[in-house]
Amino acid sequence: MTGIFDSASAAATDDGGAPAAGTERVLEIRDLTVDFSTEDGIIHAVDKVSYDVYVGETLGVVGESGSGKSVTWLAVMGLLRRTTARVSGSVLLDGRNLVDLSDADLRPIRGRDIAMIFQDPNTSLNPVMSVGDQISEAIASHAGRSDPGASRKRSIKLLDLVGIPDARSRHRQFPHEFSGGMRQRVMIAMAIANDPRILVADEATTALDVTIQAQVLEILQIAREETHAATIMITHDLGLVAELANRIVVMYAGRVAEIGACDEIFRAPANPYTEGLMGSIPGLHGEPRRLEPIPGQPPSLTQLPSGCAFHPRCGRARDRSMCSDQVPALVEVRPSHQSACHFWAEMALAADTVPGSRTTHG
Q1: Hey, which residues does 86 pair with through a beta bridge?
Q2: What CA dihedral angle connects 334, 336, 341 and 346, to 10 degrees?
Q3: 79: burial class by Cβ within 10 Å (0-12, 13-18, 19+)?
Q4: For residue 349, what pLDDT is reported?
Q5: N or C: where does the chain have the smaller number of CB atoms within 10 Å of the terminal CB?
Q6: Are 61 and 247 contacting, i.e. CB atoms less than 8 angstroms apart?
């Protein structure tokens, strides 16, 4: 069986992190911050997150539950309740800051420019509409005055594309007549109906068994090739990211811990949290080894630790006051590879690489 290091090397690029599809940015996220007001206090869900999305790349966004990976993209799409969520920073698409746009202005962008595939299709599909009508509705919502016949033809073609057998007849069926994996395929068909530039898959395979998961992942690859969209894989599954992603963003407690080319991060992580995630997954090259879970639990987002949020769980922090006193900046440790750790150079030295560093926006 191929180890995740081997898979990552096959999936990633040879130029130190520039996406295989090129270096043209389709989206720029800068200092994105999301706070929620609750009875228990302010939840700091996303804290000054900055990174770019490039045309045609597959970007894996990973981290434990509560790391902010999904909330970041809900904020990008304007899907957070404005009455409870306070969003600041900028998300630039074609020079427009999506954070400043009203719901009415964001509506045409959702689905046309950025589309999301959610984890549970049962909560996303309308149980009293046929799947074909729902796909046709997604097409019509961005086409203005559309030909119902053309929309129907397009929806059947999309169902066939995502592997629904006998698409012409199943087009008339309702969601409850489909299996879980088939419903997820319908969601993918709806997401790519308008050829979005960014396709976001939020834990899209988590609720599926391994066999169906593999099939859905194959469909996602087909969807990416069909639309040429940048694909965002939000997941806790590092093996999945190693198999599919060009780049990886590692998040912890609402912040970016590390970002870079997938093969380089799997080969030589420059952040103790990433290193801990690597140590908690099964063997890499088929060789048996002892799993090392990360000690402790992620912090409460209402009471984040001072300094580096990971320092209470970090073996490298030891008694170093810098870790508990100062929030580490995201710095460049290698070309197109950044880490938020005061002592990243120790890890680079262990990997027999000690390049220079400079502060970067990610």
Answers
A1: 35
A2: -20
A3: middle
A4: 72
A5: N
A6: no
DSSP 99: G
Residue 293 burial (CB < 10 Å; 0-12/13-18/19+)? exposed
Distance, in Å, from the CA atom of 239 to the CA atom of 53, rounded to the nearest integer, reads 21
User: What would the two tokens of residue 358 be?
Assistant: 């400079």
pLDDT tens, position by position, 174-195: 999 998 889 988 999 999 999 9
Which of these ranges, 2-16, 66-80, 123-137, 294-308, has the smallest mean pLDDT? 2-16
CA 344/CA 143 separation, integer angstroms: 50
Predicted confidence (pLDDT) at residue 305 exceeds the cutoff of 90: yes
Question: DSSP states of 4-62 as a string?
Answer: HHHHHHHHS-SSTT--TT-S-EEEEEEEEEEEEEETTEEEEEEEEEEEEEETT-EEEEE
| Cα-based angle 128, 132, 136 (whole degrees, multiple of 5) | 105
Q: Measure the N-to-C terminal CA separation of the chain; round to a whole number of Å.
A: 34
**Which domains are seen in the chain, by residue range?**
1-113+196-302 (3.40.50.300), 125-186 (no CATH)
Strand partners for 62:
235, 250
Phi, psi for residue 339 in degrees, rounded to 5: -140, 145
Specify the length of the chain in residues.
362
> How many Å apart are CA 310 and CA 261, to the nearest integer?
22
